Amino acid sequence: MTLAIRSDAFDDGEPIPRRFTGDGDNAIPSLTIDGIPPAAVELAVICHDPDAPGPGGFTHWTVYGLAPTTTTVEDADYREGPNDAGRSGWYAPKPPAGHGAHHYAFTVYALSRSVDGLPSRDEFLRSHVDAMVGQATLVGTYER
C-alpha cells in the first residue's frame, strides 16, 4: 500500500469548504492517513500555500509527533509547530481578495527518525530530508 492522505471535507484538487477557512469557522479539516511505511517511526503533516504573496509562499500548519499508527489526525496526539503568522497551530486559509485560487498542500511525511522540538517548515525540510521514507500530498483550493 502507498502512503496517502485524504479528507472527508474536500477531494484532491477541489475547493476547501468555507467553514475551514479564515472567512468561516477556522476549523481544521479532517485528515486521514493510509499506507504508512513499516520503516516510519513518526509522521509529520504540513499545510503550505505556495501561491501566497512573498518569497516561499505561506505555511499554515506544522504538526509533529504523530505516531506511525495514526489514521486520523484529529484523533491523534501531536505537537503544533510554528506557522508563518508567527504562532503555533492552524492558521486557516484566507488569501488576498481577487488574488485568484490558492492551492493548500497538506503533506504527510513518514519519517525514519523523530522530530525534536518545533521546527519551522523550512527547518524541518532541511533537517529531515534524509529521514523521509514516504510522503503524500492532498491539495485543496480556496479563493476570495
TrEMBL record:
Entry's Gene3D superfamilies? PEBP-like
Return the annotated region ranges for Disordered: 1-27
Cross-referenced InterPro entries, in alphabetical order? Answer: PEBP, PEBP-like_sf, YbhB_YbcL/LppC-like
Source taxon at top rank: Bacteria
Give the protein family.
Belongs to the UPF0098 family.
The name of this protein is Phospholipid-binding protein, PBP family
Organism name: Mycetocola miduiensis
